[in-house]
Amino acid sequence: MPEKDDARNGDSREDVRSSDPGPARERRKLRLPLKSALALVVVVLLVLPVFSTLQKRYYERYPNLHVRMENWRTSTHGLIPCSGCHVNPGARGLLSFSAKSIPAFYSQLLQGPRPTNLLTVPDRHACQKCHTTYRRVSASGDLLMPHRAHVEVLKINCATCHEDLVHSKNTQGFNSPEMSRCLERCHDGEKATDKCVKCHTRKHVPENHRRKDWLEVHPKLTETINCGECHAWSPDYCDKCHKERPKSHVGNWKKQHQVRAKARGSKGCLFCHGGEKFCKRCHD
Predict the structure, then answer these.
(1) Which has the closest alpha carbon to 112: 59, 74, 149?
(2) According to the per-residue pLDDT averaged within each range, which of 21-30, 59-68, 149-158 is highest?
(3) Alpha-carbon radius of gyration of the chain
(4) How far apart are CA 265 and CA 216, in angstroms?
(5) CA atoms of 17 and 102, how far apart (whole Å)
(6) Centroid of chain to Cα 47
(7) The whole model's pTM is what?
(8) Which residues lie across from 200 on neighbouring strands?
(9) Which is nearest to 151 in space by CA: 125, 177, 174, 176?
């Protein structure tokens, strides 16, 4: 009987221990700080990249970005923070930026800054956070700029034309768009007009350019006329004509060129073909 009593007493003590909430409470107390610490780590790993990639000092630590950062500092946008341009408005813009900046941050830590992990070029929605109106004429009044047509109708991003506005400069050392790029990308006479008067309010074809013999006499007139006043937007503006076959030199030109030469004289021919010796290669 005493043995049975001892067994029952032992079972009772086990039941008391199993029903004691003390150990479970202690375990829960330990889990809470662990969960909090884990949550903090996750937050830091996610928030730190987003915050860091929007700080100018973060990029200034990379030597190969010093020029880009200096250009930004001296540009018209030097007082605008990174988030002002590189984060689109609204919650969706912030989420989109976060999704790109987190992997970019860790990629930069491992590989350094590269074109694939730097901030992307802002789109027009970011620009329109500040630029709420569409300018139609330049500040100087000599250039027509139908911004509304480019942005709303053609859906062209601002940075397509203003690519040298902040972090770089054009070939002339300025932040303004270059006309040569306008002509190369769009205003080539086919995709968009290339007529000067469609954009320039003060640039019309001079009267002397309308002379019938302009092609023949213009080389001599370059001694008294500053051609670069209109044409210097391209460093090799003469080459556009002088390194291309004239439109007249097609078809049966080999047999017909003598007719043109007799009618208009040979001065224009000799300007490109280097004198009478060229003619004598065929005409003995």
Answers:
(1) 59
(2) 149-158
(3) 37
(4) 9
(5) 50
(6) 27
(7) 0.60
(8) 143
(9) 125
